[in-house]
Amino acid sequence: MLNTASNAPTDERRTLEKALGHQIRLLRRERDLSVADLGTAAGISPGMVSKMENGQISPSLSSISAIASALNVPITALFSAFEENRDCSYVKRNQGVVIERSGTKVGHVYELLGASLRGELVIEPYLITLKQDAEAYTSFRHAGVEFIYMLTGEVVYRHANQDYHLAPGDSLLFDSGALHGPAKLVKTPMTYLSIIVYPRK
Predict the structure, then answer these.
(1) For residue 180, which of 201, 153, 149, 157 has the smallest C-alpha distance?
(2) Interstrand relation of 97-100 and 121-130 (parallel, antiparallel or unpaired)
(3) What separation, in Å, do the N-terminal and C-terminal C-alpha atoms of the chain show?
(4) Quick one: average pLDDT of 39-52?
(5) Which of 82-91, 113-122, 185-194 has the highest mean pLDDT?
(6) Burial code of 173-196, b = ≥16 C-beta within 10 A, e = fewer?
């Protein structure tokens, strides 16, 4: 695997072990077998079977073969979960879901550019446009973290008790549990990219 500048850990090995274990457990339960039953049939200790199902070890090929035989499936069936679908959200230009706020947030247009479908985190990327009639609003508050990248226009953006003057090319990353939002619209119309990340419930 080619590395990038990201510090995100690679997880190929762990994913393979977890996927293998998940498939073994699924097939075992479909056959109404206990861990001990499967271990006896495969000639492997129940503790080893449990570790395999939890993705805690890298089992030998002979152990995998014995498990497959005991479950009466080809070895390839145990790896089918590894070929899982990975999320990918593609949105063509100007075809994101547009949400236009009313009331205190009049003139704020939010275009949702994609959606994460599964996993532990929800990621919401927005293209936000503040029109000429937009109003300042500093009472946004929600779970997670938010990243803002200024594209056009200028704004004084408030986070907690601190103000930041953002011009094109400027960015801001912050804990979105604090009150935040545009405090002064210096140059409108303006656009900025906002990416919100928070745990999925």
Answers:
(1) 157
(2) unpaired
(3) 32
(4) 94
(5) 185-194
(6) ebebeeebbbeebeebebbbebbb
CATH code at 35?
1.10.260.40
Q: Which residues contact 94 (CB under 8 A, 6 or more apart)?
A: none
Q: Are residues 128 and 53 in the same domain?
A: no
Write down the mean pLDDT value for the chain.
85
Domain count, the chain: 2
Q: Using alpha carbons, select from 192, 190, 158 the residue that is nearest to residue 174.
A: 158
CB-CB contact of 127 with 152 (8 Å): no
- 75 and 151 part of one domain: no
**Sequence letter at residue 53:** E
Whether residues 78 and 101 share a domain: the answer is no
pLDDT in tens, 12-28: 445 778 888 888 998 99
Q: Does pLDDT of 193 surpass 90?
A: yes
26 and 116 together in one domain: no
Does 71 share its domain with 104? no
Using CA atoms, how far apart are residues 174 and 196, in angstroms rounded to an integer? 10
Q: pLDDT tens-digit profile of 58-112?
A: 888 889 999 999 999 888 888 776 655 566 777 888 888 887 655 557 888 899 8
Containing structural domain, residue 176: 97-199
Q: Please tell me the number of Cα atoms within 13 Å of 161 on its side-chain side.
A: 0
